[in-house]
Design brief:
By secondary structure, the protein is of the alpha/beta class. Helix 3 crosses helix 4, helix 3 runs parallel beside helix 5 and helix 4 crosses helix 5. It is 38% helix and 24% strand. A six-stranded mixed sheet has the order 6-7-8-3-9-10, with helices on both faces. The protein is globular and about 55 Å long.
């Protein structure tokens, strides 16, 4: 039985000035899977994610999200489509002047006509899903880094999205808290039948949560496969990145001229 493709990148290219960030990226993401995008700093992971959510338009190529060509949508059509996705930001991106409950309820207040009493119930339910029942009245400044990430996750799922995008969800967290976030991503994906797209270079997270993994390198999709396929890859760059070895084909720039030449290739 063919799997349903909910996200498709077809030959994406993007340049900022002289620098080629995405250089013909093509891949597909299936309904219900947790797809991890990994790669080194500056490889184009976050830029690629912004294209998948419609925040950026490619110089060439197409992005299809839930069957819609993002490059062909007008503003109203894009707004409707964005209500079907959630975004969990690296820094949680909470509003410090709002309580936890107000932060989580914001999408409902902006995009629905639900009564306040109904919104309050939904917020409590979403906070309970991320293990923060009863935290509605606290301010973000009163929370730990891991708790802030979980509030951000509750806000990302408050509209019952079909797809949730995560940008470095475990960045800056200790291993135990990072493990809690990884488990939450998996649990929510299964309980809510969500397709999850996770950008990270945390190798433990990559292999803990990924149904499939795509590695970006120099703006290209170097390889896509299951965790076992990536572990057993014959590609030396994939193996070097997974192992974290400084020795291998992936270059570590120590000279300014070499780096500048690399940027403008």
């Amino acid at each position: 039985m063919d799997k349903e493709v909910v996200i498709k990148a077809d030959g994406l290219t993007k340049k900022f000035g002289d620098r080629m960030i995405l250089n013909g990226v093509s891949l597909e993401i299936y309904k219900g899977e947790t797809f991890v995008i990994m790669g080194g700093s500056g490889c184009g992971k976050s830029t690629f994610l912004r294209h998948l959510t419609g925040a950026l338009k490619p110089d060439s190529g197409k992005v299809y999200l839930l069957g819609k060509d993002l490059t062909a949508l007008n503003e109203d059509e894009m707004d409707k489509l964005k209500k079907r996705i959630g975004m969990c930001f690296q820094s949680a991106a909470l509003f410090d002047s709002m309580t936890v409950g107000e932060n989580v309820s914001l999408p409902l207040k902006e995009h629905t006509k639900l009564e306040k009493s109904v919104i309050d119930i939904v917020v409590k339910m979403k906070l309970e899903l991320v293990g923060l029942r009863g935290f509605e009245d606290l301010m973000p400044s009163q929370l730990s880094g891991g708790m802030r990430k979980r509030v951000g996750l509750a806000r990302a799922i408050v509209m019952d999205p079909e797809i949730v995008f995560y940008d470095e969800p475990t960045a800056g967290l200790d291993p135990i808290v990072a493990g809690v976030i990884d488990k939450l991503i998996l649990d929510l994906s299964k309980k809510l039948s969500i397709t999850s797209v996770v950008v990270t270079h945390d190798m433990k997270s990559v292999f803990s949560i990924g149904d499939r993994i795509g590695m970006l390198y120099e703006g290209r999709a170097l390889q896509v496969g299951t965790p076992d396929e990536m572990r057993n890859s014959s590609n030396q760059m994939v193996q070097q990145f997974i192992s974290g070895s400084p020795d291998g084909p992936i270059r570590f720039f120590q000279q300014k001229d070499d780096y500048l030449e690399h940027l403008i290739r």
